[in-house]
Write a structure and sequence with these properties.
Blueprint lengths: L2 E5 L7 E5 L3 E5 L5 H4 L8 E4 L4 E6 L2 E6 H15 L29 H6 L5 H22 L10 H12 L25 H12 L19 H4 L5 H7 L1
Antiparallel strand pairs: 1-2, 2-3, 3-4, 5-6
């Protein structure tokens, strides 16, 4: 059984669960007893059990999916992978309107759609992992972001991040060379050549997917050393 879970932490915390490209649960309920038992947290969710089926594939074998769940899962995957076509807000199409006015459209069987049609195919997994790795490494190279797997000790953290973006402990103002989120420009040639190289790197980023930094500070025992070592740990753990 295949599940796709999606969560948006920047709004009112909606959840989406899509199982087997056949059924979808959308709402605020989390996948735990607090939400699902019905006598603790106040939640709202709906189950979409579509009866309109289409032919698809799952793990290389023929598989019947429902039109709503499959198209939603494919659309979400394409969004994360950067496979959606540009949308012009000044040129509305059927997807701009409520479904009561016009049925939403999905571009079935296009090359972009076929890349995500079978979520258990090795080609999909390879594409997903490769794009996530490319995005992660590109962000890291340009912006020296943390958490990052290449930073596994405090010494590496100091060299990679704090000497560029260190905050003054008392007032939180930048004491390093750059504001957080800005390009570490000294690593590139000055002027137009540097700008060209940064744009060339940024063009490699597609979609929104990145790797989970599971190795960040792997070489340090944060719990043992305490949380008051620097601005980063103080912000994250307090």
């Amino acid at each position: 059984m295949l599940f796709l879970l999606s969560r948006n932490i920047f709004s009112y915390d909606p959840q989406i669960l899509i199982a087997d490209d056949r059924i979808a649960i959308i709402g605020s309920a989390n996948l735990n007893d607090r939400s699902q038992l019905g006598d603790h947290d106040s939640e709202i969710a709906c189950i979409i059990d579509d009866t309109n089926t289409v032919d698809s594939r799952m793990n290389g074998a023929p598989w019947k999916v429902t039109r709503f769940a499959a198209s939603l899962r494919r659309q979400l995957c394409r969004k994360h992978l950067g496979l959606l076509k540009p949308q012009n807000c000044e040129v509305p199409d059927s997807n701009f309107e409520p479904v009561s006015i016009s049925a939403n459209a999905y571009d079935w069987d296009t090359p972009e759609d076929m890349l995500v049609a079978d979520p258990l195919a090795p080609t999909f997994e390879n594409f997903w992992n490769t794009r996530a790795h490319t995005n992660t490494e590109t962000f890291a190279k340009i912006f020296h972001v943390v958490p990052y797997d290449g930073v596994q000790t405090w010494a590496q953290y100091e060299d990679w991040y704090e000497r560029y973006f260190r905050l003054e402990a008392k007032d939180g103002k930048p004491k390093g060379r750059y504001q957080v989120g800005h390009v570490v420009s000294e690593l590139y040639p000055p002027g137009e050549e540097g700008a060209r190289l940064v744009k060339e790197e940024l063009s490699k980023i597609k979609g929104t997917i990145v790797e989970m930094p599971l190795l960040f500070l792997k070489g340090e025992d944060i719990a043992k050393e305490g949380i008051g070592l620097n601005a980063f740990t103080e912000e994250v753990y307090t």
